[in-house]
Automatic annotation (TrEMBL), chain A:
Keywords: Germination, Membrane, Transmembrane, Transmembrane helix, Transport. This is Spore germination protein KB. The lineage of its organism: Bacteria, Bacillati, Bacillota, Clostridia, Peptostreptococcales. The chain crosses the membrane at residues 12-34, 40-60, 80-98, 118-137, 146-166, 186-206, 227-250, 270-295, 307-328, 340-358. Gene3D superfamilies: Amino acid/polyamine transporter I. PANTHER family: SPORE GERMINATION PROTEIN A2. The keyword Zinc-finger does not apply. InterPro entries: Spore_GerAB. The keyword Transmembrane helix applies. One of its GO terms (cellular component) is membrane. It is found in: Membrane. It comes from Anaerovirgula multivorans.
Automatic annotation (TrEMBL), chain B:
GO terms for biological process: spore germination. Its main location: membrane. It is a lipid-anchor. NCBIfam families: spore_ger_x_C. It comes from Anaerovirgula multivorans. This is Spore germination protein KC.
Length: 367, 400
């Protein structure tokens, strides 16, 4: 069967979009509540921990260039343990796939259209998700290539426009509370920026046309996302101060309401929302696509497109009832999400890597 | 398949334009300004709402450009909803320009009110907070002014202009206000507004009926100076001179005008075109001290009397006198903040915290006692760049 292939630049944009999507509008609040005015240092530290993780993803993929992540797990762990591990990974993907429309619905109903039922908003979003996956990975990759230009340009425009309000005093004193809070918030950064990229593993080795350059594109995309998240955190603290940043529901959005240059450049906050929805859409696709293809591979379907619509319906229904309220969601994100994603984004790949190395070593000894 | 697509597209036409929570502009009551007064056991809220038919009409309209609605109650959000009983249109607050607190409210503290302004999603962050001095917030909002049709916008604009061109006011928005309240080493200020009697029209010749009607004494709103806060409570006022001094110290002067006297007969007006201040903390025998350096550039605005400003030594005299005057002005303000109010409105505590975080942790709790004794050294450096359109004054006798 002819496999659909994506280019390296498309992989780069998928990585960047996936990494930005989950974090651009909310992350600075969580981080500023821990590290105060030093949160931007944590953002700078994140790639230091993130790069090895991305390297593990790359390495695993490069060893099995014709397998998906589910296939890799099965190959390394064997049939039964592999099946259980892969199934729980697929469950994670499908679960997060219905968290993401919830964020969209919640944001739109709190900030813009309070009277609109969440389902009406989520319906549009989930429909787009389903259509995208029916069109297939090539279309998704091309869209993400466009989105990353759109998001980056608008983002830098917004940040330049808000910079006249920056106050350098908000950053000082540096290292007031020592290094510990910075490291702690760096963990949070990783949980939103780095580890969700595990879903890329369903796309990256199997659909990539040029394996030689894969490492470079993964790293480049990841670093680009890091730069953008660093700038949002940095600007939020510069303009709003760490206290307001920490207590805002959507700090980057609040940051954009501060744009006030001349008479023309005001009321631009929905620029930031556009970036967020677009990148959130990409991370939604990554999770949903991984869930759908993973599930179809697990149960041995030849064509994953057949289960997209039913799963889409489940996602639509679940997207409103997944969190009963915003308080529950905030607790979930702070308490459940980090250990959850660390299990699948960090521990699982590390165990896979170790098992892979041990197996290889044993085979060598035997031969 | 194509038919299905067409049907899908038609359905999305209904849902996509985002009409769900849409409100047509002719169903909205757009709030320009809010006034918050105290009433027995709660708030007395006044909304200044745009009257579109008076503004949009091509012919000058006789209707008032704004309408005031007031309601009493215990909770701000509740009162805003309650006003729907009167307004007949849906109240829309994303265009809010200004919030006026009455003195009674700010004396009791504004933290509770501020939470509402930060939480409600229709509010943006670009409106200013001011305090009505010696009058009610409703009274301030009720005064119509001739140059700007809408009083709320007039207050917003004149605050902005007087800050940029005259200097004793300060436009404070919610982000800055909240940050100043929560910061340990900084106290907020808000500009005060008062209602004054405008007497300029009285002397007009009474030739027509119309000017007769207009030559009555009219009221107008006028900014007064800065209100000094301790945390979120108003504790006193700085007058115009002291407010200017405050803005010099924190480096918030863009452009202003002042004069100095040289001898008995000479008066020189200087136009400050740029004034920047740098605050630095230092240690004197283990105790913190603050150095403020103000760099300003001047233009000569006017000369009265015999004083040749085109001579270099004379310009040096002028610079020196200007430095002295600004220094005195700033010192007076600092002295008042330290000894009369004991409120660190300049953020000196924050300056110390930034430079000496460990020392600040020790003195943080005792800052109220430390602040009045804090040594503050103010240095002013003036530089005159331009003389204006003429060099030597015309009416100076040339020595042959």
């Amino acid at each position: 069967m002819q496999k659909t292939k994506i280019t390296n630049h498309q992989l780069l944009s998928l990585t960047a979009n996936g990494s930005i999507g989950g974090s651009v509008i909310v992350i600075s609040a969580t981080v500023a509540s821990i590290a105060k005015q030093d949160a931007w240092i944590a953002a700078l530290l994140t790639p230091v921990f993130g790069m090895p993780v991305i390297w593990i993803y790359w390495f695993l993929g490069s060893q099995y260039p014709d397998k998906t992540f589910v296939g890799i797990i099965k190959e390394i762990f064997g049939k039964w343990i592999g099946f259980i591990a892969a199934a729980s990974f697929v469950f994670l993907c499908l679960q997060i796939a219905y968290h993401i429309p919830w964020y969209i619905g919640n944001f739109i109903t709190t900030q813009a259209m309070p009277e609109t039922p969440i389902y009406a908003i989520n319906l549009l979003f989930v429909t787009a998700l389903v259509i995208a996956i029916i069109y297939g990975i090539e279309t998704i990759a091309r869209a993400s290539e466009l989105f990353i230009y759109f998001a980056s340009i608008i983002f830098f425009l917004a940040m330049i426009l808000v910079s006249p309000n920056a106050k350098i005093e908000n950053l000082q004193p540096v290292f007031e509370n020592g290094i510990m809070p910075i490291l702690k918030s760096s963990v949070f950064f990783s949980c939103f920026l780095t580890l969700p990229l595990i879903t890329l593993m369903m796309i990256y080795p199997i659909h990539l046309s040029n394996m030689q350059k894969a490492k470079k594109s993964l790293f480049k995309g990841y670093l680009w996302a890091n730069l953008i998240i660093f700038i949002t955190t940095f600007m939020s603290i510069l303009v709003l101060g760490s206290i307001i940043t920490a207590k805002a529901q959507y700090p980057t959005y609040l940051l954009a309401t501060e744009i006030n240059v001349g008479v023309v450049f005001t009321r631009l906050e929905f620029l930031i929302v556009a970036i967020w929805i677009v990148t959130q859409f990409m991370i939604g696709i990554l999770f949903f696509y991984s869930g759908v293809t993973g599930l179809s591979e697990l149960i041995g379907l030849k064509e994953h497109k057949k289960i997209v619509v039913p799963l889409g319906l489940i996602i639509l229904v679940m997207s409103e009832i997944v969190f009963p309220d915003a308080i529950y969601q905030a607790n979930w994100v702070n308490l459940v999400w980090p250990p959850y994603i660390i299990t699948y984004g960090l521990i699982l790949p590390v165990i896979l890597l170790l098992t892979f190395c041990i197996k290889k070593w044993i085979f060598k000894r035997v031969n | 398949m194509k038919k299905l697509l067409v049907i899908l597209l038609m359905i999305s036409l209904i849902s996509l334009p985002g009409c769900w929570s849409g409100f047509e502009i002719d169903t909205l009551a757009i709030i320009i300004a809010m006034g918050i007064d105290k009433s027995e056991g709660g708030y007395f809220l006044t909304l200044q709402i745009l009257n579109p038919s008076a503004i949009a009409a091509k012919e000058p309209s006789t209707a008032a450009p704004v309408v005031l609605y007031s309601e009493e109650g215990k909770d701000l959000k509740e009162i805003m909803r309650k006003i729907h009983e009167k307004s007949g249109r849906r109240i829309y607050s994303a265009h809010l320009q200004l919030v006026v607190f009455s003195e009674e409210i700010v004396e009791e503290g504004i933290n509770d009110a501020l939470d509402f302004f930060a939480r409600f999603n229709e509010f943006r962050t670009d409106f200013y907070f001011i305090v009505a001095k010696g009058t009610t917030a409703r009274n301030v909002l009720s005064i119509l002014t001739p140059l700007h049709q809408i009083p709320g916008i007039k207050l917003h604009e004149s605050l902005k202009n007087s800050e940029q061109l005259w200097a004793p006011t300060k436009s404070v928005r919610i982000v800055e206000l909240v940050n100043a309240i929560v910061a340990e080493g900084k106290e907020p200020v808000l500009t005060g507004v008062e209602v004054t009697e405008e007497v300029a029209n009285v002397k007009l010749p009474t030739k027509s009926l119309e000017s007769l009607q207009k030559s009555e004494i009219e009221n107008t709103t006028k900014y007064f100076g800065l209100g000094v806060f301790k945390e979120d409570k108003l504790i006193g006022w700085l007058n115009e001179e002291e407010s200017k001094g405050y803005n010099y110290v924190i480096g918030n002067v863009n452009n202003t005008v002042g004069y100095i006297n040289y001898g008995d007969k000479v008066k020189i007006t200087g136009e400050v075109t740029n004034a920047k201040s740098v605050m630095k903390a230092s240690l004197e025998e283990g105790k913190p001290a603050i150095d403020v350096v103000i760099n300003m550039t001047l233009n000569v605005g006017a000369v009265e009397g015999e004083f040749d400003v085109s001579k270099e030594e004379n310009i040096d005299i002028f610079n020196e006198l200007a430095e002295k005057k600004i220094k005195l002005m700033c010192e007076k303000t600092v002295d008042k903040a330290q000894n009369e109010f004991n409120a660190d409105i300049f953020g000196f505590g924050e300056v110390i915290r930034r430079k000496y975080p460990k020392l600040w942790k020790e003195i943080e709790d005792d800052w109220d006692n430390e602040f009045p004794d804090l040594p503050v050294n103010i240095t002013v450096k003036a530089k005159t760049n331009q003389l204006g359109q003429i060099t030597k004054p015309f009416f100076i006798k040339e020595k042959e």
